[in-house]
Design brief:
The protein is an alpha+beta fold and 505 residues long. It has 12 helices and 21 strands. It binds flavin-adenine dinucleotide. The site of flavin-adenine dinucleotide (FAD) has 41 residues, from helix 1, strand 2, helix 2, strand 9 and helix 8.
């Protein structure tokens, strides 16, 4: 970008801060309502990488019949497959119940109800304007319909080509509809307009100091604060500086800070975040060349131990879709902030495709016997003797009578262990054996701004801060302790569209 060139004539009706799924949804909705829109994006165009870009592109959606899903993704090809009934419906009540359950019923009831109610309509809107979607339901080798990630649960639609496909489509649409995207522009402050009718967004440009962007309304869509190691540690607690950031390096909470400085209320689970098991071989933030390689979500079909060779989680406490976002915290609490996911050959068909990459960063160790695997892990700092003892004790505690099924919470469990595995527990006894080293990958933070159902930012008295909207990760109050997979993108689209329409009005 030529210094200053694209910043000339920068006045807009609506300035959106952040070009992720939420911000671009807001920009498209505001353009459709006739507003002149500028989107400020901290990343340079060549290195653009919002969390939405790095995401799997999975949206959680409520539906009453597969016909409704097929209207968005086209024919699903499930005729004759077994197990289709498991996917026949995922009602608004199901979605709300899962969301409430995983958040200890602390999620903002009005916002979560709104997002659930509008989930399908918002996706139909994206599809209608040209975002391509597909179904993540596949038919496996046994002729049974299942989610492409075994053990995932809920109603989903997936952006074709995942996060990159989603954001490419949204950026292309923004460009086509005349929303102006200014890359390399980091919003740092909001100054109220002297007449009280709008804002000037003060923006740090990569090359040329600070640039003011005047706007009648502003939408904050600049993500959470997970990429700021200092703020993360102050708020989430000791050790969080050592987590790896899975997505954007730019989501440092600048938009949240700017809004708090003009009277916005902070809201939600500030000590909570979405954090997963993530390969130790990853970079410190999202990598455009290889990010998905580092996902490690198949732990329900194996055993996880720390470097002391001991288990510390119930790997099968629920479908992975409802546990993965909280197990990163458990791994961070282990010695060295790492753990090893152990599998035997029986699990190989159940592992997600990310486990198949054989690149050096995969942090994978194999053994023809458990003793051989343990011996190799000893060279990586693991207590091999304890690991072998842990697996022997685990194998001996598996209840033999219950049939294993990856499609349901099968109740196939251990009994009598200090930490039992309560579903999908089968003995680790079939060579070859493999182990993957994982650490804590933080996805996004749960604390943020308080908004109402019109996506208006509220002050501490509960009044709207005039002409200020927020959506996406910047919003607090949606997630507490844990998270139901696919809710981030859905909430970003629903609240983004509402924010864009409101800001344009
Ligand atoms: C690896 C990974 C996989 C995921 N998979 C899924 C999934 O399959 N389904 C799902 O629902 N969720 C998923 N998530 C979570 C999901 O990506 C987020 O919840 C969602 O994308 C957030 O959208 P957003 O627009 O709020 O933030 P983002 O998409 O991160 O967009 C924020 C943008 O703001 C920019 N920005 C930041 N600060 C400033 C500033 N001061 N000025 C200007 N610009 C700024 C950033 O550069 C960024 O481009 C995943 C996340 C990751 C990291």
């Amino acid at each position: 970008m030529t210094p200053g060139r694209d910043d000339r004539d920068s006045a807009a009706d609506v300035v959106v801060i952040g070009a992720g799924n939420a911000g671009l949804s807001a920009a498209l909705a505001a353009r459709a309502a006739g507003a002149a829109v500028v989107v400020l994006e901290a990343a340079e165009q060549e290195s653009y990488g919002s969390d939405s870009y790095f995401s799997g592109g999975l949206f959680r959606v409520a539906y009453d019949s597969l016909h409704e899903i097929e209207r968005i993704v086209g024919p699903m090809g499930l005729d004759g497959a077994a197990g289709v009934d498991d996917f026949a419906a995922y009602t608004e009540a199901d979605f709300l119940s899962d969301w409430g359950r995983v958040t200890g019923y602390r999620t903002d009831p009005e916002l979560s109800a709104l997002i659930v109610e509008q989930s399908q309509d918002a996706l139909r809107w994206l599809a209608s304007i040209g975002v391509p979607f597909r179904s993540p339901i596949v038919v496996d080798g046994s002729g049974r319909a299942r989610h492409s990630r075994p053990g995932w649960h809920g109603g989903f639609i997936e952006a074709a080509a995942a996060g990159p496909g989603l954001t490419d489509a949204l950026l292309r649409l923004a460009d086509k509809t005349g929303a102006r995207i200014c890359y390399g522009r980091t919003a740092v402050a909001l100054d109220p307009a002297p007449d009280g009718h709008g804002w000037t967004v003060q923006c740090r440009a990569t090359e040329n100091g600070t640039t003011p962007f005047p706007a009648k309304s502003v939408v904050i869509a600049s993500g959470g604060f997970q990429a700021d190691a200092e703020w993360r540690t102050r708020v989430l607690g000791p050790g969080w500086d050592l987590a790896k950031v899975r997505g954007s390096r730019h989501n440092t909470g600048a938009g949240i800070k700017a809004a708090l400085a003009v009277g916005a209320a902070s809201h939600g689970n500030w000590s909570g975040c979405h954090a997963v098991a993530w390969s130790v071989g990853s970079g410190d933030a999202g990598r455009r060349d290889a990010n998905h390689v580092f996902e490690r979500e198949s732990y329900p079909f194996g055993v996880t131990v720390n470097s002391g060779g001991r288990r510390f989680i119930d790997e099968g406490s629920d479908f992975g879709a409802y546990t993965y976002a909280r197990y990163g915290r458990e791994i961070l609490a282990q010695p060295g902030q790492t753990a090893w996911q152990l599998f035997d050959a029986k699990a190989s068909d159940l592992q997600t495709s990310e486990y198949r990459y054989k690149n050096p960063e995969a942090a994978r160790v194999t053994g023809a016997t458990l003793a051989e695997l343990a011996g190799r892990l000893a060279g990586r700092g693991v207590d091999a003797g304890q690991l072998v003892a842990t697996v022997a004790e685990f194998n001996g505690a598996v209840a033999p009578a219950v049939p294993f099924s990856p499609y349901v919470r099968d109740g196939c469990r251990t009994t009598g262990l200090a930490i039992d595995k309560t579903n999908w527990a089968v003995a680790l006894d079939t060579p070859p054996f493999e182990a993957y080293e994982v650490t804590c990958g933080i996805t996004f933070t749960f604390g943020g701004l308080k908004v109402d159902t019109a996506a208006r930012v509220l002050d501490v008295a509960g009044n709207p801060v005039p002409r200020l909207y927020a959506c996406g990760e910047a919003v607090g109050g949606l997630h507490y302790f844990n998270y139901a997979s696919g809710t981030g993108l859905t909430s970003g689209t629903v609240l983004g569209r509402i924010a864009g329409r409101g800001a344009a009005a």
